[in-house]
Amino acid sequence: MTQEELARRLADTGLPVAYRAFRTRQDPPYICYVYVYDAQFFADDVMYYSAGHYQVELYTSAKDPAAEAKVEAALEGLCWEKSEEYLQDEKVYQILYEIEV
What we know:
Elements: H1 3-11, E1 17-19, E2 30-43, E3 46-60, H2 65-74, E4 80-87, E5 92-100
Parallel strand pairs: 1-2
Antiparallel strand pairs: 2-3, 3-5, 4-5
């Protein structure tokens, strides 16, 4: 999967989506995603596999299972790990999905 395909999947949620950050202020819920690092599998001096690690960040003003379900549906077929944090300064929940594509 390419970064463009990931962006399309996230856009299909119907929520506003941006790479890294929006240029203008957004009202939650919205999604940001960012490339974090690449991982390669090497053996016998040959690279067999390379995958990009991305973070998909869902921001909501209140706990929003429906928005989370939209993101999780967009990530169908991918392995992901999910964590949650409340950002007190911004008064939003950040639901973080770590994926490999």
